[in-house]
Specification:
The chain has 253 residues and is α+β, with helices and mostly antiparallel strands. 36% of the residues lie in helices and 24% in strands. The protein has one domain. Helix 3 packs across helix 4.
């Protein structure tokens, strides 16, 4: 499939594959440190990446409880209060090194970071996009992004929006197969070389455009009362977090 281009920055256009950056010096430095600490075993490397992303990063929410996906860029300061050039966008992606620098990121940002570090360590990984549903009644909770890779010989998901814990690795067959209280539907995936969309829309942007439109609309919906809008982003994150916690508790029994 042809690699699509996206305008998820400040007017500059990038290939979606440009957001997985295994050769970036900052990403290479993280990968080299992990390699020195845990060696070349794939499973211990995956666990180290899970610790790094799960424990060091946070998910940005605005005062209304919606994902803070907006960004503003200012360049060329004219006076203490004015700039020659400014750009505001209601939906943006960070590059992996930017996410690592600020230690904040929406789901796609931390998924891109996790995948970039994994691929820098020669671990086959990819970024996946799609909707999240509540298993009990198939209620749509929101659109989402995650990392996918092999761990302990099985295909796993790295749920990079669960912060404060390294328990973010779940077998793909369980999360896609409705064995948790939430389930994911993969509509697209990419790495630094390829992009695949399972539901191609105009220009091949079906999954990417749905993802963008969801987050832009979320800010508007969040201004209304919570009880009228169960698809609030923080509710999605809470549902995912609780489902993964419950899953890990069951694994201990």
């Amino acid at each position: 499939m042809a690699i699509v281009s996206v305008d998820f920055r400040f007017g500059d256009v990038w290939k979606v594959t440009n957001f997985v950056q295994k050769e970036n010096p900052q990403i290479r430095e993280i990968a080299d440190k992990i390699d020195q600490e845990v060696g070349d075993n794939i499973d211990t490397r995956v666990e180290a990446i899970a610790r790094y992303v799960g424990l060091k990063f946070r998910y940005p929410l605005n005062l209304h409880g919606a994902t803070a996906s907006e960004a503003e860029l200012k360049r060329f300061k004219r006076t203490p209060r004015s700039w020659i050039w400014k750009a505001f966008r209601d939906y943006t992606w960070l590059f992996p090194a930017e996410t690592d620098t600020c230690r904040w990121g929406i789901c796609i940002d931390t998924a891109n970071l996790f995948t970039s570090i994994a691929r820098a360590l020669d671990i086959p990984a990819k970024v996946s996009l799609g909707p999240v549903y509540r298993t009990q009644d198939d209620q749509l909770l929101g659109y989402h992004a995650w990392s996918r890779l092999t761990y302990k010989g099985l295909d796993h998901i790295a749920e990079t929006t669960i912060h404060g814990t390294d328990r973010i690795l779940i077998p793909t067959q369980d999360l896609y197969g409705k064995k948790l209280d939430v389930y994911y539907v993969e509509e697209a995936w990419f790495d630094e070389n390829e992009y695949h969309d399972n539901q191609i829309g105009e220009g091949g942007l079906a999954a990417l455009e749905k993802h963008r439109q969801y987050y832009v609309g979320l800010r508007k919906r969040a201004k209304k009362k919570r009880k009228d809008h169960p698809e609030y982003e923080e509710d999605k994150i809470h549902a995912i977090r609780e489902a993964v916690k419950k899953y890990y508790r069951k694994q201990k029994k």
